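ESCALATION

Customer reports they have been waiting on this structure for their group meeting. Please prioritize. Original submission:
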Amino acid sequence: MLIRDFRFDSCDYRATRILLGKVYPREPTSVEVLRFEDAARPKVWWRKRVAEIDGHFAALGMVGEAIGSHRKGDFRLRIHVDPDCLNQGIATQLYADLLALAHGQGPVGRLATHTREDQTGASEFLGEKGFEVVIREPVSELDLSTFDETSFVHKIRQAESHGIRLVSLADLARECSDWQERFWQLDTTIHEDVPLPDPFRPLPLEDFLRQKVENPAFTPHASHVAVHGEEWAGLSELYVDPNHPKVGGTGLTGVTRPWRRKGLATALKLKVLRRARAKGVRRVITDNEENNPMFQINLMLGFQAQPAWLGWQLILAEDD
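Update from on-call: job pushed to the front of the queue and completed.
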């Protein structure tokens, strides 16, 4: 087996798309989105490595400094192995390679990673290495071809009764010259209450815009904001890869504290789902921390629970 650097060329990106399509067949991606994600990454140290067997792209590994971490020595690590190449020791060798690269940057205090709970082999591998689960985020999926909004339309009227306008981000971009900064501020405010294993640290405005607004999958005419006068009170985002137009992904959905428990999140989701269906999307995917009220809202709307993402961490050195 050969372990080498990722080449960031068309060949390696196409191989990555094929690999991820086999590992996560319900969540398609494209070369364009993969290239964008690498280009938009904040300026921290990171490496991508490929495991090849007889020229076959058998696994992809990534390791890098944790973005926005409050602790020095925090690293993120991911390994994706071709399902046809499991049980050949590939993950073990690639893990050792990535860990050595991280140690080359200085003391490693903590490693964090994610797997899907139906990937039992990956969970066993991480457990044997000493990793522990720190967060569980169920995936849920809605079939828009059978979705009936009748039971939820009153939520839009309820929002409007509070003086709320539910406006697409595309329309707000035409209304407000400072929409990008307001979008960033709203996203940051909502994210402060999103359940996470670590305290939230907001992205700088430049990084936020690069990752969100410039994302080729971001869909501003379907993403909606709850607006009360000059106040932006809630948000629900939609991402649709142009190469996979029938599958949408919900980004952040949330409401600022003063406006909670007024039905705004449901109303926003409904507006997004309407636009998604009009755009030709057939299936919408999202995930939430299992105790997050948004998960229950999604289930109420008819989203079907799927295997969850598991967030793992390995403590190698305690903070001083």
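Sent to customer with the following note: DSSP finds ten helices and twelve strands in the chain.
Escalation resolved.
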